[in-house]
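Example record used in the benchmark description.
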Amino acid sequence: MCRNEDEVKNTKKEEQAMDGLKERLRALRESRGYSQKGLAKRLGCSPSLISSYETGERSPSLQNLGELADCFGVTADYLLGRTPPEPGLDLTGLTEE
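Model output (structure tokens):
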């Protein structure tokens, strides 16, 4: 079965999002001082599940993605690399005038 160009592009975008997710998840966890075990306890899951998200072995379900975002006070879009970490106005290109 051959994949068309759109399917290949979507697969690459998904891979990039998951790469971003694992990096952001680990950075958020460490910046908040959580161990994998501590985060797992807070979320009610196993430490091995957190580890598998951080290594990219598994992707979180939509429900778990939402719970991770809520836990860290960020959006799911941030975890997926779609938005910057701090919501706010984009002032790029504006001058003081």
